[in-house]
Design brief:
alpha/beta; Rossmann fold; 7 helices; globular
């Protein structure tokens, strides 16, 4: 992944509040060296192709395209890129669809917003192969996995 250098992270979220909180959180006391931020899917995917991030924090409810579609494109282009879904969506079927299409973590904005930095650190230090492992999926802070 990124070895000892800092992480390149792309944040795609249409909420100015979430972007502001994560900018502060990720710049303070985390391994993030470069943070690229955008508020829509089109700009997000363009930045993804240009910036070649180690990780992406992706909202599902974007104004121009659903985040699941962007997730599919990103994982098809660069399967090893870590993608953390950060959403207000609580639907178990959406969580499962995201994990099935390669999301490495599924976090909820209302309860997990401040855990994004630690999730990035954990996921970006875990050895990754070309195939998905169940271990990566278990790094989510999802309460429903405890059952």
């Amino acid at each position: 992944m990124s070895g000892s250098r800092g992480l390149r992270v792309l944040l795609i979220d249409d909420s100015a509040v979430v972007r502001r909180v994560l900018k502060r959180t990720l710049k303070r006391g985390s391994r993030v060296q470069h943070l690229f931020v955008t508020s829509n899917a089109a700009d997000g995917y363009a930045l993804f192709k240009i910036s070649r991030p180690d990780a992406v924090v992706l909202d599902l409810d974007l104004p121009d395209l659903h985040g699941l579609e962007i997730l599919k494109r990103m994982k098809s282009a660069v399967p090893k890129c870590v993608v953390i879904i950060l959403t207000n969506c609580d639907a178990p079927e959406m969580r499962e669809a995201c994990l099935r299409h390669g999301a490495d973590s599924f976090l909820r904005k209302n309860s997990d917003l401040l855990t994004v930095a630690s999730a990035l650190s954990l996921l970006c230090t875990t050895p990754r192969s070309g195939s998905r492992s169940g271990a990566a999926k278990k790094t989510t802070n999802d309460k429903s996995q405890a059952s």
